[in-house]
């Protein structure tokens, strides 16, 4: 019986939490929102420093692993070929890990920093403009990608090196927790991950849907209201459900490739038809500021505001901690996905590839799209900030695009790209959720109906909360739901080191020919 493959305790546990959160929010929206906000203030206010430390530690840990003995371990046997070429690999990685939110934030994030900078800088002053273009790159930069990559290590290691056909977070912490993983603790770990991801995905949908609907409004004149937004959400769900159903080699790969070409088109278009020289100079300068101030940004908290009369800007809580938490809830999923597509690469290639391609890709988005908007503002061609404060961010994003020549072409392409970007994250997410809620993967893929099921489940909570008018609560909830993942990340790193060190030691004594250390003159698969 195929259904025996389902890991029922995890499956049902995840649904219980989903309904356990959604139903009270429907029945008591105001009290619900209040509770979520209190929980959020408590977490970010008291444990913000944990998020900040986790980010830094993840970065150092990965760099250490990449250049240690572990880095040379090949994910597979001596003759294992790479499953995907580097182009498709990078495209799939980026498309899975990054969704439509990058279009949203790359276009508009600078405007928030411009008005509310960190480091005690005066808003809208010259210095705040310089940081405005840089901070987005930081929040989508090396630390963020390190958070994404860390879970991939143990997962890929157990899947391809120790050859356990299970794609599960709980399975990856077995070296530390031992047999406990087979009991309720294992289910709890998987359920926490599923719940975190549903929260993070909810944030993505909460941001993406209004932006896509504004785009459609601009093209067709269809109004932006609850009904059209719900329609957009359902259409997107339909698209990623089909893609996930058709699987990794077809739907997910085709959409990822299409995604990449459209990205090249949009970025190229804005770069060429926008202020090319300004964009180039501002991007390069921002990279400089990023490198120069990296650790200042990575550790910026506001302890003084707690004991002195210095004003607290809430910048760390609203941005860096929020972002790390958001990357964190996606991280085990991206780790599972990166692991799944990395057969035949070495650990070092997987780590450096993810961090370098990921960061560079994000820098391009923020450099080109962000600096275009900044240029409009500074050159007084379009008052982005004024427009945003009046009509909100999603409408402003579309209005910025309307300042470009051939906007009749750019807005539709941008809108389609947002839909595809969203879908390429959610198809992989439903694929991975199905894998985690299964005992094992027969034939390498989770069951098809099971993938469809998770696709619709992902959109359930955002859809319901949209109707009670509270997507904001959802965004906040997603952050709260990610808190336990901090500890799961530590377990994941520990497990990887424990297992790989043991195997390396054993293979030195020729007792375990299970790991294959890639050598310099090996042919690439
Ligand atoms: N991250 C990258 O909405 C999305 O683009 C998916 C968001 C975690 C900020 C991921």
Can I get a quick summary?
The protein is an all-alpha fold and 525 residues long.
How much helical structure, as a percent, in the residues? over 70%
State the helix count: 23
**What structural class results from the helix and strand content?**
mainly alpha
Q: How would a crystallographer describe the biggest sheet?
A: none
Distance between the termini: 37 Å
- CATH fold-level assignment: Amino acid/polyamine transporter I
The whole-angstrom Rg is 22 Å
Ions, cofactors and other bound molecules: 3-carboxy-N,N,N-trimethylpropan-1-aminium
Estimate the global geometry from the Cα principal axes.
globular
Mean pLDDT: 86
Whole-number tally of structural domains: 1
Number of DSSP strand runs: 0
**Beta-strand content estimate:** under 5%
Subcellular location: Cell membrane
Transmembrane segments: 7-28, 48-67, 87-108, 143-161, 188-207, 227-248, 260-291, 321-339, 351-374, 409-437, 449-468, 474-497
InterPro entries: BCCT_CS (IPR018093), BCCT_transptr (IPR000060)
Family: Belongs to the BCCT transporter (TC 2.A.15) family.
Describe the structure.
The protein has helices at 8-27, 29-66, 86-97, 101-115, 126-139, 142-149, 152-161, 169-172, 174-177, 184-220, 226-246, 248-273, 276-292, 294-298, 304-307, 315-341, 347-378, 384-391, 393-402, 407-436, 448-467, 471-481, 483-508. Helix 2 (29-66) crosses helix 16 (315-341). The model has no long low-confidence stretch (mean pLDDT 86). Helices cover 76% and strands 0% of the residues. The protein has a single domain (2-510), classed as Amino acid/polyamine transporter I, CATH 1.20.1740. It is mostly helical. It binds 3-carboxy-N,N,N-trimethylpropan-1-aminium. The site of 3-carboxy-N,N,N-trimethylpropan-1-aminium has 10 residues, from helix 4 and helix 16.
